[in-house]
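Incident review: delayed structure delivery

Summary: a single-chain prediction request sat in the queue longer than the usual turnaround. Root cause was a stuck worker, restarted by the on-call engineer. No data loss occurred. The affected request and its eventual output are reproduced below so the record is complete for anyone auditing the incident later.

Affected input:
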Amino acid sequence: PVQDIATQPLLVDAQLSAGQQHSLEIPDSHTAIIYVYRGNLAIADRELQAQQLGHLTSGDTLILHAGNQGAGALILAAAPLNEPIVRSGPFVMNTQAELRKAFDDYRSGKLTAH
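Output delivered after worker restart:
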């Protein structure tokens, strides 16, 4: 397994039966999202249906309540990088210079499969 990653990523595929409740500890320093791919889940004061994405805010314990058909959800969390971000088209980099280099590399064929 991969170890010693600075962002301390967390990836959980939560499978809950109908009406089941599950709690998950997420470090308060992490940014987290949840994607419900089956059924529906109640989380705090909101409900997410299948194919909906939610951004999780402060708090270190996530409590999931599955609906009457059960639920499946992906939970992704990690410590923020706190780095600058610039984007244009398909590229996301840290500086304008890196962005220009990515476009130059693309135009010259350096970023294409051969």
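Verification: Helices lie at 96-107.
Action items: add queue-age alerting; document worker restart procedure.
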